[in-house]
From TrEMBL:
PANTHER family: INNER MEMBRANE PROTEIN DEDA-RELATED (PTHR30353), TRANSMEMBRANE PROTEIN (PTHR30353:SF0). The keyword Membrane applies. The chain crosses the membrane at residues 24-46, 66-87, 158-181, 187-206. It is a multi-pass membrane protein. Keywords: Cell membrane, Membrane, Transmembrane, Transmembrane helix. This is Membrane-associated protein. It is found in: Cell membrane. GO terms for cellular component: plasma membrane.
Amino acid sequence: MDRLLEIILHTDDALLALVANNVYYAYVLLFFIIMLETGLIVFPFLPGDGLLFSAGVVAASTNLNIWILLVILIIAAIIGNLLNFITGKYLGEKLQRSENYFLKKYLLKHLPKAQKFYDKHGGRAIIVGRFFPIIRTYIPFLAGMVYMERRLFLKNTILGAILWISLFLLTGFFVGEITWVKNNYGLIFLSLIIITTLPLVFSLLLKKKSNSN
């Protein structure tokens, strides 16, 4: 758990230290972080986009193999979505009816946003949702709740995982050796977090404005 918190708070330094200590442990930990971010609705705060970019940057200058990493993280993203889909299918309604304060206050409050996103994009929401923090944690859960056809879900899950992982991981890898990137990594990491959360922030502001009117 301490290692996980360190990666969340100090992603680049923590990854470099982890790889230097045990590269195989790095593969395993990165696998589980990506899987859990979309696999369980209690982990929407895990650093998906930034972590993928960081892993790519680290792979460019260490013995962390980018192609092995690409494959295992795509698998992790697929498994995560499938776990969340199954949870939504079999436990979704029960969880929604739960009176648990933590579930209602901090987790299930995001479900209406995911519902609106799903209604707008349909089956493509599984793919598009990969690029939106928090939303990507809830879309598979919601797809299970509404009994989305399994083949359609699996096809979109695989495609979405390939696109999402490849974009951020390979971008980090190919620009990771650029001097400016190395010197401004903290700024880039923060910018990624801001850029990927802007659509969600704007939607919340618009909803608040419409409610006030």
